[in-house]
From TrEMBL:
Family designation: Belongs to the purine/pyrimidine phosphoribosyltransferase family. PurR subfamily.
Species annotation: Tumebacillus lipolyticus
Keywords: DNA-binding, Transcription, Transcription regulation
Quaternary state and interactors: Homodimer.
Official protein name in the record: Pur operon repressor
Domain named Phosphoribosyltransferase: residues: 115-256
Signal peptide feature range: none
Gene3D superfamilies hit by this protein: 3.40.50.2020, Winged helix-like DNA-binding domain superfamily/Winged helix DNA-binding domain
Domain Bacterial purine repressor N-terminal: from-to ranges: 5-74
Length: 274
């Protein structure tokens, strides 16, 4: 392989790091792959780290020693997050999205890979120190957001089912009362989560918090620790939720069916300074 120019090497290094967040990558292996000296890579990585930190995109953590290694830790600058929520507000703020009963049509947003990718980065940045071994969600609309978060945390995703599937093997099922006051069931295969694991719960929408509370209760049956709860959008009412300590990217403040108006504001994600 011909020797790369420095500009080419930096681009390739950046690509490798972004594709494998939270994974410790060997400097020796990367030096061999890029036909470069480790000292040159170290200089390149310093440049990449400086740009990432200045742009609020995360940082690089290095490990000293003979083996040596580096990993990309995603970050997300607060003002970029606020711009993202403003974009979401503009997309979902149309009165045409209001459905009978005061519900809000969001399926297209939850299917947009670019919008989902940003949500995943934001959750990964907030929960990067949580130590989560898995991201857990309940089918179906929460799955794309959970996939995005798991991708940037570099951990597996586990889907809790609404009913038992024969292909899941032996399962644990619980009944719970949803926000619409209906009794529902959720089920999870016993093979899905090892005991003593740490999990991050991610869901698309939360009103009173009945579904998320049921997920937390189900996790207790597996003897795993819930280290965080990330919600794409929560409602302002009721103010008293069934859970506490959740992190929402956006808050649905009002859906006025008569005036055909929707108000969406930044969620609890922005309550604390980064």
């Amino acid at each position: 392989m011909s020797k790369m120019r420095r500009s080419e090497r930096i681009v390739r290094l950046t690509q490798i790091l972004l594709e494998q967040p939270h994974r410790v990558l060997s400097l020796t292996e990367m030096a061999d792959k890029l036909s470069s000296a480790k000292s040159s890579l170290s200089e390149d990585l310093a440049i990449i780290r400086e740009v990432m930190e200045s742009e609020g995109l995360g940082t690089l953590e290095t490990q000293a020693g003979a083996a040596g290694g580096v990993r990309y830790v995603p970050g997300f600058r607060k003002e970029l997050g606020l711009q993202y929520i403003q974009q979401i507000s503009e997309i979902l703020g149309s009165g045409e999205r209001i459905l009978p009963g005061g519900f809000l049509y969001m399926s297209d947003v939850l299917g947009d890979p670019i919008l989902l990718d940003t949500a995943g980065k934001m959750f990964a940045a907030r929960f990067k120190e949580s130590g989560a071994d898995y991201v857990v969600t309940v089918e179906t609309k929460g799955i794309p957001i959970a996939v995005a978060a798991a991708r940037y945390l570099s951990v597996p995703m586990v889907v809790v089912r609404r009913d038992h599937k024969v292909t899941e093997g032996s399962s644990v099922s619980i009944n719970y009362v949803s926000g619409s006051r209906r009794i529902q069931t959720m089920s999870l295969s016993r093979r899905s989560l090892p005991e003593k694991s740490k999990v991050l719960i991610v869901d698309d929408f939360m009103k009173a918090g009945g579904t998320v509370k049921a997920l937390i209760d189900l996790m207790k049956e597996f003897q795993v620790e819930v280290v965080g709860t990330g919600i794409f959008m929560s409602t302002e009412e009721p103010q008293e939720k069934m859970i506490s300590g959740y992190v929402s990217l956006a808050t649905l403040r009002e859906v006025d069916e008569q005036a055909r108006q929707v108000e969406i504001v930044p969620g609890t994600y922005f309550n604390e300074e980064e």
